[in-house]
Amino acid sequence: MRKLLFLTCLLITVSSYSQTVKSKILKLKYTVPEGWTAKEFGGQLNWDEKGNEMCRCSGVAFSKPNKNGKFNVVVYPSPVGGMDSVKREMVGNLHFVSVEKYEKATNKNFSFEKRRSNFFDTKTKTNSYNVIRYVAKVEDHYYVFYVWQENMNLLNSTSEKELAEMVNAVEPL
User: Fold this and answer.
1) Per residue in 27-53, pLDDT tens?
2) 50: left (phi over 0), alpha (psi -120 to 50) or beta
3) Could you say which of 5, 116, 135, 154 is the most buried, measured as most Cβ atoms within 10 Å of its Cβ?
4) Going from the N-terminus, what domains does the chain have, and what CATH number goes with each?
């Protein structure tokens, strides 16, 4: 009985640690922080095939529940030619409203072009959540990150810190 109890406690302890996922398909490695979930989608051979309701392309969606609105981070890998594709300007029916102004940003894994804007909901024809779009070039391809909270208020420093935790957990392979 003691052995069974010990093994159960050990299993719970080991499973509580974050696991690192190496996605050869997306050329990404990520460690999902506590409270976050990850779901990859898309084709096995081509980033522009298949997909899901978010995009007819490949990517990974991270989410974390929050009392003020769920946190979301979506990452789309893209070949150079795919950066002109409208599909990577959307997350489902949410279209990124492009803006001219951007800033350079870096973390330990990427150098980004960072744009703050909002989504436009193509279903309801209304402005939607405040969002940050990061674009990073890695070798012969790009990554497009969309970062937002399902809350109609502007992102505050606390929300941005939570979202940055997930962005910082993603790195190229």
Assistant:
1) 999 999 999 999 999 988 888 878 888
2) left
3) 135
4) 18-172 (2.60.120.1690)
